[in-house]
């Protein structure tokens, strides 16, 4: 009798609240409860949908949906490193070195650039600018989405879908083929050619100078998976953001492409990524743009289904 008296809207809202709470909690409790990674990702991925069912459409809800999407992404990005020893047994170190040596005609472009332009122990202004372009990446893709939300609302949904699809699909490479960055290969001795200086991780060198004792806590917080280099999502998401900005206007596009180009140079010069990582990131971004029209009808059907649940939950 009691079950029959429950209104459909109440049941939908209760299910959505449960899904939202579980989606937020699963990444936090995954180690304590020993949750399998697929369970964590699937549970966290339901949270943005649950929020859409529970809360009417607004800018605040759009921001919350993006935050929850990235909550699921970060958990999935970090989980391979929950067992660092197992990850190190799986990581590929040598193949990108070989590819970049071929690109650089016997020497990786990173080593060529650092030896030609760098001065160990000293950072010129343009090198500091490259480091800061790397640090500012944490703001650029999300800042692009926020710009569309605030200034070009009609482009927000498309921009968010493209940028966050780039984040999510890039995770496939991190799980399937964990690949080490150049600085890790240098520590393993794969960059040693008997010449000096050896490959430097310039971002860390400058970070220690600039942030002092605050660098290690800051880097520890942001560096959740050090063996996730292929494809370069730094570059892929920046290219995608540049495309979205260019579609919105020439000035925004010029700024977007200027940043993406600067970041690409920085990633290679600073020893954070190989050229082949950037090429894979570029291919990922362009592939998503090319494939978007084919999958758009399926996503519109999903959107209509979520909107129908939202309407029923509000009755």
Reported for the largest beta sheet, the result is: none
**What are the segments in which pLDDT stays under 50 over at least 5 consecutive residues?**
none
Work out the helicity level: over 70%
Q: How much of the sequence is in beta strands?
A: under 5%
| Average of the residue pLDDT scores | 93
Question: Helical element count?
Answer: 16
Derived from helix and strand composition plus strand pairing, the structural class reads: mainly alpha
Run of helices and strands = HHHHHHHHHHHHHHHH
Overall geometric form: globular
The multimeric state of the shown protein is: single chain
Rg value:
22 Å
Distance between the termini: 21 Å
Q: Total number of β-strand segments?
A: 0
Structure characterization notes:
This protein is mostly helical and 315 residues long. The protein is 75% helix and 0% strand. α3 crosses α16, α10 (156-176) crosses α16 and α14 packs antiparallel against α15. The longest helix is centred in the last third of the chain and has 39 residues, at 275-313.
């Amino acid at each position: 009798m009691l079950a029959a008296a429950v209104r459909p809207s109440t049941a939908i809202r209760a299910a959505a609240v449960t899904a939202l709470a579980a989606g937020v909690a699963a990444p936090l409790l995954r180690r304590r409860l020993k949750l399998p990674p697929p369970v964590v990702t699937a549970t966290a991925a339901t949270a943005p949908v649950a929020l859409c069912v529970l809360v009417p459409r607004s800018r605040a809800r759009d921001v919350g949906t993006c935050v929850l999407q990235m909550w699921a992404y970060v958990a999935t990005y970090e989980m391979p490193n929950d067992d660092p020893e197992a990850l190190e047994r799986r990581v590929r170190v040598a193949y990108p070195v070989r590819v970049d040596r071929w690109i650089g005609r016997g020497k990786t472009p990173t080593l060529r650039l650092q030896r030609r332009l760098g001065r160990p122990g000293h950072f010129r202004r343009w090198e500091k600018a490259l480091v800061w372009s790397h640090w500012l990446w944490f703001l650029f893709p999300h800042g692009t989405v926020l710009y569309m939300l605030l200034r070009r609302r009609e482009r927000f949904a498309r921009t968010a879908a493209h940028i966050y699809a780039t984040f999510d699909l890039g995770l496939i490479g991190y799980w399937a083929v964990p690949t080490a960055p150049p600085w890790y290969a240098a520590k393993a001795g794969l960059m040693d050619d008997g010449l000096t200086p050896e490959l430097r991780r310039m971002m860390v060198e400058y970070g220690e100078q600039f942030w002092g004792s605050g660098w290690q806590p800051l880097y520890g917080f942001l560096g959740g998976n050090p063996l996730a280099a292929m494809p370069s999502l730094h570059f892929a998401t920046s290219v995608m953001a540049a495309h979205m900005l260019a579609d919105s206007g020439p000035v925004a596009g010029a700024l977007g492409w200027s940043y993406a180009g600067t970041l690409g140079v920085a990633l290679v010069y600073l020893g954070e990524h190989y050229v082949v990582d950037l090429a894979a990131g570029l291919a990922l971004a362009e592939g998503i743009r090319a494939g978007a029209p084919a999958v758009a009808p399926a996503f519109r059907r999903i959107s209509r289904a979520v909107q129908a649940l939202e309407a029923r939950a509000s009755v």
